[in-house]
Amino acid sequence: MDAFFASIEQAINPRLKGKPLIVGSRNSPRFTVVCAASYEAKALGITSGMRSQDAFRICPNLSFVPAQQDRYIWTSRQIFTFLKGLGYPIQYCSIDEFTLDIGDTQNCHKLSSGIQEKITQDFGITASIGIGKNYLLAKLASKLKKPAGFLEINEENLEDILKGVPAKKICGVGEATNLLLENLGINTCLDLYQKDVLFLKEYLGQYGINLYFGLHTKEEISISEHEDLPKSIGHSYTLSKPNQNPGFISAWFRLLSEKVAERLRAQDLLAKTVHLWLELPEFGHFSRQKSFSNATDDGALIATRAMEIMAKNGLIWPNIRAIGVTCSGLILKEYEPLFLEDKKRNNLLKAVDRINQRFGEEAIFPAVIKLTNPTTGTL
Amino acid sequence: MLLSGFNPNARWDRNIEGAYDDPDKLKAKIQVLAFFSGAKVYPRIFMMSGKRYRIRKLNYTWQKRQGSELISCFSVSTACDIYQLSFNHSSCAWKLDNIF
What is the CA angle A109-A113-A114, rounded to 5? Predict the structure, then answer.
């Protein structure tokens, strides 16, 4: 989907159509990051991830809408349901991106225009479609023809297209990788495509191998029970400003861990590994993970483990801008707890989940989470 | 239920009361004349403070959950303004959430 959040907001409020618009988080318009920018804003040089202050500096008359996740999630699910109904194996890649395995379908142009028409008609937004033998080439094709475009990269036109596209356009090639590639004389996607696997492995390691096979292999989406198991479940949050208050930070650890645990329990999963990610204004990114012998779906334990990771790495309540808690090493919860205390705790968590499902998010929650609220952050 | 790939539930955001300008702030009860077709609802006219507003265009619809309650939301245009209405499927109550 093209400028997904911004396009939905423009469809909801037609007065915003044709105007530069950014969608930001729910905090102050001047103190957040750009989640999405309309094409009119993009034309002025405003991009996702930019500080809203910088966006307003570029365009003082910029329209701002706070992100409303329920609208985007609902629309995303509706589009997924429609695409699934087409009968091809489908993968949910992100909130505004889907991969269909159309196999050897001959008239893919007709199929694509049908999908684009339906999305525009039902939701008032546009979609770009790329076709390729694998995800990376299809994604590149869709990127090259945004907005509302269609491009097929096949064996006949592959070289012609790739030779005119910078290597950094490939999904996953960031600034650091691009700099390395440029130093190796790899400037275009074609240069990258023509390198052999050993060359890429030598300079990029495992990522080089993944990149090589990602670009050359003909991918298929297989649907099996085993692959349905997610690899990880995580939540992250960027604070409105850096904070090092222990009470506030530990409350955020707990809240994010509770959200992760709730999703683990909803899918009958237990996690062995906890991964902590922090954005520290003074030190940059911090990212560590640790595996534990007993898997869990308890938010309190996940939060304790995340804080243990922070403490064991010498971080004593540092100034924190963003926090991410992710659980991996997921296994299916096949047995009920054996001991009485564990059983009691398990029943408590189940009851909490049932109450929240019935009465809404955070109808009941651990009291410490209240400290995350800057306006009523007292117990 | 297990989901492969991306799960839209990952798009959770913190709902902090009072910390931002709530877009659904009005929550005024209104009377609505609506057309129900299959599982879809099409509001046509709404009454607020004794005044009647004819809906010229249904701009967008979406749904959200508040616990077990399903809420349908509508962005509608009248001759002059754009409104956000909502319909609670459990209580069958209509509300005016916002004026754009």
Answer: 115
